[in-house]
Fold this sequence. Notes:
The longest helix has 34 residues, at 460-493. By secondary structure, this protein is mainly α. 78% of the residues lie in helices and 2% in strands. β2 (98-100) and β3 form a beta hairpin. Residues 13-20 have low confidence and may be disordered. The protein is elongated and about 90 Å long. The protein has helices at 4-14, 16-19, 21-41, 44-53, 64-69, 81-93, 108-118, 121-133, 137-144, 148-161, 166-181, 185-202, 208-223, 227-245, 250-265, 269-286, 292-307, 311-329, 334-349, 353-371, 376-392, 395-413, 418-433, 437-454, 460-493, and strands at residues 61-62, 98-100, 103-105. It has a three-stranded antiparallel beta sheet with strand order 1-3-2.
Amino acid sequence: GTSIDAYLTMLDADGWAAIDSTATTRTLHRVLSTSVRRAADAGPLTRAVLGVVAVLDDDDIPRSLFTDGCAAIDELASATPTDIDEAIAGLERLSLIEVDGTDVHAHHLTQEVAAAAFGRPDLAVALLNAAVSTVDDASLRDVWQPLVPHAIALLERIDESGEPTTTAARLARALSTHLSGRGFYFSAFDHMELATSWLEQLVDTADGELVSARAELSTCCSQIGAHGEALELARQVLELRERIGGPDHLDTLRAVNNLAVRNLELGRYAEALPLAHRAIDGLEATVGADDPNTLTARGNLSIIATQMGDHDTAIEVATSVVDTRVQLLGPAHLDTVRARNNLSVCLSAAGRLTAALEVIEEAMGAMEVALGGDHPETVTVRYNLSICHRQLGDVDNAIRLAERVVHDRERLLGSEHPDTIRARDNLSNCHGRVGNYVSAFFLSKRALFDGVQVLGLHHPDTVAMREWNQHIAKQLKRRRRPQRLLSALSRSAHT
């Protein structure tokens, strides 16, 4: 009944582990191999439970993963919760696992021996997929939370084995979607890229799951700032969607909208605008004006119109989206909060700063409640709030917010992410407003250099950064002229 950790602690206290750790490990392997064989003899259910435990993370495996998921798995459908509890208790008696309330723990040596004997990554994938596919969206985040380390460990094991499956790819996509929603964009990208690469090995190019994975990968690329790659994937997805479902299929229209957004991100507003209109017209005809897909496309149109200077259209569309979101979802729903943020951007760009500030402050509070203060989307709202304060002349608040945004984006997204570059440029603008031209110039110089490298020489944001940098450079020269004159007069007075 002694656990592996307790046994190793005992040996370490007596000095044996330090004398011959290799011998200790070999002995444990032999003991564990015997226990694993006894577990296998206890029956297929005990063997299956141990096979799953062997391929997950070694700590905090929820018992509910087995008790709640068995009904969805043909192999385990006949097992009752009592049967599962008895199988877990039998493994604990053999010292192969430890049970702590609602969680199961396994030593990595146990996992190593059991995985080699009869590891069941296929069954683990099925249980995890069942756990996250049988709950509503409101509960999904809480269900995922204890499962994330196990899904990551399992997918790494499958990738190392070189034996992926479509169900494993499905799990990787679901994990990526969860991580993206939590704001862990780079990890989300890694798992969506993994899922896509597996599906490319396993299914035809036109397979629906693969096309969906590529669409999701395009979004992941956008989130990590790889906008060129995101655009290319979005083009491929639209081509495939049109070939598979035709120009008016819902999936095709979603792909059209996504391609519009990818062009918007790259500053290609003239290309984005007709795509946005096509998506909206098609979606209104297919699913209706108040469908979430249509509202999302209209929200995107409002930002495109803002960037193109059509402020009346932008504000009208953005206001309509907010009103409909409030009516259908309520004021605190995340999609409503996002719509308010869009509206504030449109109002601010149109010079309606007081109205913009009122809307963005409401969005800021709601976003912090919905996602937390550290989520990249919350940081984006804070960035927009800083710009609004700057434009209103409240530079102290603008600088305070802008400095926090730069710090958060460097930490969350990296120093060369497009959003970080924009944040640094905004901070430069804030310093320039109060005459702190030296800080403004060096912040602007770095933002411009990175903007050229990451966004490209002709991106509208890069152009604006270059114009600001030139303006600040002129201000510095003007400041230095009186200083040089005073220095010359001082030297003249001493001669």
